[in-house]
Amino acid sequence: MPGATAAATPATATAPGAGGGDAAAIAAGDALFKNNCAQCHAVNEQVVGPALAGITKRRPVSWLLPWIKNSSKVVASGDEYAVAIFNKYNKQQMPSFALSDQEVNSILAWVTSQEGQAGPTAEAKPVVDGKPGDEAAAGGAEAGAGKYVDILLIVLVVVLIVLVVTLVIIGNLMKDVLRGRKDLDGRDVEILEQRFDWGKMYRSPMLRGIVGVVFALVLVYAGVQSVMAVGLTQGYQPTQPIAFSHKLHAGQHQINCAYCHTSVYKSKSANIPSANICMNCHSQIKTESPEIKKIYRAIERKQPIQWVRIHNLPDLAYFNHSQHTQVGGLQCQTCHGPIQNMEVVYQYSALTMGWCINCHREMPINAKDNKYYDNLVKLHDTKNAGAPFTVSSNGGTECSKCHY
Q: Do 306 and 180 reside in the same domain of the chain?
């Protein structure tokens, strides 16, 4: 039986040795691991699946290649080791991956280079606003500096208030001293006893006119703002049927957005993840949580989870996620804000036509090594010397791009 042969075959020298593989392969493997494997595996500790340290010693690369690409096929073949792993982890199915042999070898090279090192929970630097390591430390320093500036401003305001009160008290004391003097002439007494006539100021036609104009302008401004805000939902933060924390999943655990929103790089829409994707992890993790049990009930009843949509565009506007993420190379945070810091997701950006157009006017296009843009860039540089080649330069502000 092929599976039995594979199970009996010792690990061979074809596997990358500890610390083996060139730097480029290890770097590529790091990125591939984070995007495809980190949700379920760690190198030196068990997560959803087994720890991967020593994997190239336990299994030869010739066995690992088909296993990583399509573990279901290897299990179905009757391979003893594959069946044992499958049963040990409660028959949790590992997803199939459309990876090349070179990409798999890069992942293995990176895994091998990390063996014996402290896991991320032991050595990872604290995460602050979704920024780990030194970046988090820098962010913390900036936050500390901002805090000191706020304290300084508060102190200055208090000092100014004390100075004003002190000057008023000194002024009243000086008036009392002057009133006790008998050598003051009539002009001095008149100045000393003069009072501000608030009634005269109130009756002033000029003041009434200024106040009336300002009041009218405030009303007009408030009315225009109310009309302009019709249909806008910036800040919208509905309560979801299941408490899901992006701060925990995307921030603390650094799960790639595309792991759950699988179509974000290849479709017009970024799909709402199905309950099956949740179960990839939660068939093993926090199974007794009341919120996770809601997922179990939805699956048992064969009913979809009724997630509340947050980001809505009018039907008259066309938007394609893949064009922005895959072609444009934009990060999710460009439009959705610091999603990795949100306990409950809300609409971060205005998503108005003006907001989109401003982005198209400012966003440069990476035309390097893309022959499609060669002539366009030449024509643009000839006519607009020094100006960047932006989305707008490529027709990104034409009406028909989004309305047709």
A: no
